[in-house]
Amino acid sequence: MLREAIGADDPDKVAQAIARSADLHHTDADGMQPVHTAAKEGYLEALKTLLSLGADVETEAVNDKSSRPLHLACEHKRPRTAKHLIEVAKADIHAPDTTGNKPLNRAAIKGDLQIIKLLLAAGADIEWVGVWGWHPLHHAAGNLQILATQLLLQRGADLEAENTNGETALHIAAEYGAAAIIELLISKGAQLDAINHTGDQPLIKAVSKGKTVATDILLKRGADIEAFESKGGTASLVAAEKGTLPVAEILLARGARLTAIDKESNQPLHLAVTYGHLQLVKLMVEHNADIEARGASVGLNYGADQGDQPLHVGTRWNQDAMVKELPTAGADIEARGEHNQTALHIAAEVSNESVVRVLLDHNADYDAWMGNDTPLHRAAIVNKVDNGRALIKAGVPWDQESKLGDQAIHLAALKAHSAFIGMLLDHGADIYVYNRGRGSFPLLTAAAYGQTECVKYILTKSPILEQRTLNGDNPLILACWNQHIDNVKLLLKAGAEINTTSEAGISPLHCAVSKNNLEITRVLVESGVDLTLNTYQWRPLETAENLKFEEMAKILRNAAK
Predict the structure, then answer these.
(1) Domain's final residue, options 473, 497, 521
(2) pLDDT value of position 302
């Protein structure tokens, strides 16, 4: 009943509804009381009646930023109700809502000139700091309210007032692409080189948001095209990162340098490649961007990220289109980075298979060295199975050796990369292949380095347990010496000879005893190890006693009973 009366803006019906016990302070589902609704919808006569019957002009809505009636009248552009609330009801024009905005901030957002004038005439603070530290002038500029902006300036608003981030109204107008407001602010003397707290000038804000008209106006009015922003870059670097092609075209047309660098020595081309902006990359190449320039791979740290050329950067970031485009544009596919890596080394280690294939399609050298390794070795070390497969399909021999004598299968065993080993076996690799550099086999390597899951996998492919190093060590001896009990148990279960000895006569038990590893010793004893085997003419018990391993000696004595 009361709602309908308010909606009809009929004071008599409102009074009748209240007289019939309608709740003057009833809060609806939106958290608003009748007085809020009347102010919001501009029902002036209903509002007057509600206030005369005792409605509180300062009551706060529950679910709407604690808005008071005057806030709602300002926000919804109701000048008649706002005028009554200000001049007759004497509403508090300085009351903030929960965001910090006062009535003038809300009026500036909506650009209602009548309400702004009413508030200023009543003494509203033209520099009140609202949400985000915005003054009314920021609100007007950021909401494209040119007439409100003009009015506030006429009434003395501070042209250089800063928000929480140190931004002036010109920063805000530039960010939101408010071209006419930019012109107005500059004509009033706004500083083109004003810097916010992160080091950005208005031009950078316009460029970062892709505001072409705003960018053009700022440049025409004298903005410094080479001014630095927060990351140490210029407008051309910002455009490259954001991929704002039309803005980049404006910048290049006005002479922006493609040799500008940021704090990490990246040029615009590095950034455009990193973020996959293909059309922008093509534009920069057309404008003679340095396709061989060195950068820092935009902060990535894979151990080989300094001195990267754009092709290296595109490879690290899995940008297939960039990796296709750059060699076509003249990039050297065999160019080396700081650590002597080619793009194919990088791709094999950190990229997707598609990037590897693109490089191979451009005839990248898969035999190229990076330190001791070729791309296949780099893929094996980090378990990039698909990349390894792509290399082998392209013609890389599975038994390609590193400068240390490692083959990919040995490196995969060293790192416990069973999936990579499986891929190599599927392509003809030999599980019994000898490592000339380490004097070892895949099973020996996995056993020595405690790679239990890898040992388990290799055992399904290799039933031969008596493979030996140059010193005559077999997998069980190495597992005991390096104290990898899980591998010891696994090898014993697979049938490894427990009393085997190396060429020096060292047995698994002697390894465990000399390392004072009680757990492995117990496993060997429980598995029936020979307690009388000599090493350097010492039996295991004598070794324990000579080394003063009392608990070890006790275990061996008890086992000998």
Answers:
(1) 497
(2) 46
